[in-house]
Structures are given as structure tokens and as C-alpha cells.
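Before our next group meeting I need something from you. Please put the record directly below this note.
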Amino acid sequence: MNPAKKPLKKLATRGPAAVQDPPRQAAPKVNHEAKPEAKNELKNNAPETGAQLLSSHRVPSRLVSSKRVSSAIAPSEISSSQLASARQDPPPKGRYVYGVIESEAPVMLGKSNLGGVNEDVYTVHHGDIAAVVSHSSAFIFDPTRDNALAHEHVIESTMKNFTIIPVSFGTVFRTDDDIREVLKSIDSTLKDVLRQMSGKLEFGLKVTWDRDRIIEELKREHDEIHRFHQELTRKHLQSTYFARMQLGRMIDKALAELAAAYVRDIYDYLRNASVAYRDNKPIGDKMILNAAFLVEKEREANFDIAVNRIAQKFGERLNFKYTGPWPPYNFVNIRLKLEKKGAS
């Protein structure tokens, strides 16, 4: 009998490890003049509709998780005089874009400390679509921990009051008018993605195991591996290169099959509690699952229960790390680009 597990809580702490949850996008090269492009990718359990839909490992019974509590900055409608003061002379070099929301009225969204400089976060509009923006003293930002956290802080604060489409780190334009031009050119795409992401949150789930412990269990309980290991021990062949290579291949195959079976069980159990999921590459040889799940806000409690139940099922064999809620980083990737027009 496995000892009863304490319920998992979603992790929300900020620290070096948290910066990697979920995976972040590398800073793109920025070209500041002319043709707009947009790219959005979604991994989904449902058939493809609208914007491109995409879709898609193992556990000791300990669950690690905590619900993230971040202070939301309540947006406030701003007057034309306030908006003008946010853009007073001398004008900054650029406009840094964090994401896109749906809002007809201009709003102020607190402060950003990107690049170590405190700047107002405001909105630039085309109709009822708005980019979340701050002034920028640079056009290229290194993806340092501080810059990544500043970028994420604005997005995650905004998501408390709006559905936000995150924009890739390092997206900078020269003027508000450049941003409006891009919003205008991809208005229908942005509205489609906002509709699909409305009322949904992302949660991360990483599952690890004690690999050495599992290997020892295989040597005892896996028939083929047990017999071969016993034969090597009896014939004193443990030190021969070819014998060790053969045993290693057998163990690697058994580990892969076992991990795949665990992962299938986890996905099958959580599928009905989520809208979509994405399977990211595991990190290291102890991680069998590195996944992101898209969940409707109203079903967050149901998803919490499902994660705890599947963790209880595996007992001490698997360890779950459960994080969120996050903006849909793994389900939407919008790249805003204004390219230089070719000479006619």
C-alpha cells in the first residue's frame, strides 16, 4: 500500500527554476520597417479551426505544486492628457510590445522594469485590438533573467484582467504608428486567436522518477533482464564490455517502454479535464514528462483534482511538479514584424 499523498498545490514561486516554467521563446531579430507578418501556433485536442491548431511523462507519488498568487495591477481607463504625458518629449527610441489584448478604451497597466528602467505600460489600438506596450531605450534586449522576468511580469499581470496573446521576447517597434499598422494587417488573425484563448489558462506539469531505483527494480522484476543479470553474475561476466553493453541496451529499452506507458496513462487521465495539451522535450534522464495543458478557467478546480488523483495512483514511483496558471505561452506564438518595403 502506498502512503497517502498530500494534495498537490500549483507552484507559483519566482526563482531561477521558475524562469524555465514554461519554456520561453528566444529573442527574435527585429526589422523595423514595412511588411507585417504574424505566426500563431496552437496544439489542441480538437480539429483544426481558424488559426493553426497543434497538439500533444512519468511519476513518484510525491507531488510538488503551488498555486501562483500574483498581485494584479487593475487597469484604469486613461484620459487623453494622461496618455499624452506617457509620451512626452523627448520621445524614446522605440516601443516594446509584450502582447495583444481586446480592448476599445486605452488602459494603463502599471510599470515595467525592462532593461532596468521603469516605464509606464499602456495600450496602442487598432479598433478593439490593442498591443500592450512600454517605451524602450533600446531596440535589442539580451534575454537575461531580469529582462525575462520583467517581460513575463507585464504579461502575467495583464492576464488577471484580460485574455492576452503573448508576443515573443524582444519585439520592438520604432513608433506607435508602426504597431497600429501591424495590428491592422493581422486584425482577423489576432481576433481569431483571442477568441480561442478566451477564458483559458495554461498549466505546466513535469514528471520525474528515480532512474537508478527503477533500474534496480527492473533487474529484480523484469523477466528477461533478471535472467540475463543472474547469468552474468553466475558466470562472473559483469566486467566484460559486450555483456555490459547488452545489459545496458535491454535496460534502456525497458525504461523507454515503461516511461511511455506511464505517460500514456497520465495524458489519458488528464485529457478530459483540459482543452489541449503540448508535449515538450523532457530535460535530463530523470524527467519522463514535460507538458503544458490548456484549461478553461471554470474547470481549473477539476484539473487540480485530476492531477492529484493521477499522482496518487502512481504513489512514490513518480514525482509531479505542477505549476500555473500561466498565459498560453505554449499554445500561441505571435511574431510581429514590420519589414522594409522593397524599392519599386
